[in-house]
């Protein structure tokens, strides 16, 4: 066996693996805000994360997944009976069918590091009501000690996931009663290192 090849092989085997660090989402410290619009206005509210984790390699984001608990859906712009009616409708079979599909899942499939410091373009599979589609959006990820913080804002067309109720693009003749297809979501995430 060639001596140089043997030395190279030994150095490769003995070389330390690139350091990876996993962070688990702090569901109490993280927030999810949503906005749904219609011709004559909009509604907004919050959701809670059920669980999630992200992995960094040499300080750079590599992979991750997040689960949103749809049972925690809350409206913030209405009060009393109107608020309860909207929340119940959003949880109903006409929309998110929370009784059967209590969780929305996003799994990162690729990460592109952008020119700006700690700015990434994330791509992944968003699963709603058992239907999965690929989406992409920018995110800012900052690490401070054993804590990781991320901010992201994304917009998706709900009709791709068969959330068609009130869609002027799917159901004609709705006029001012039409509900916009696009749903906006703002995520503020805090996660803690698994290694303390």
Please provide a brief summary of the model.
The protein is mainly beta and 196 residues long. The chain contains two helices and nine strands, in the order αββββαβββββ.
Can you put this structure into words, describing what you see?
- By secondary structure, the protein is mainly beta.
- It has a single domain, classed as Lipocalin.
- The protein contains 2 helices and 9 strands, in the order αββββαβββββ.
- 18% of the residues are buried.
Mean pLDDT: 86
CATH class category label: Mainly Beta
CATH topology assignment: Lipocalin
Main sheet summary? 9 strands, antiparallel
Task: Please work out how many helical segments DSSP would assign.
Answer: 2
Characteristic key phrases:
single chain, 196 residues, Lipocalin, 9 strands
Layout of helices and strands, plus pairs?
Layout: H1 3-14, E1 20-25, E2 31-38, E3 41-57, E4 60-75, H2 80-91, E5 103-113, E6 119-128, E7 131-144, E8 147-157, E9 179-193
Antiparallel strand pairs: 1-3, 1-9, 2-3, 2-9, 3-4, 4-5, 5-6, 6-7, 7-8, 8-9
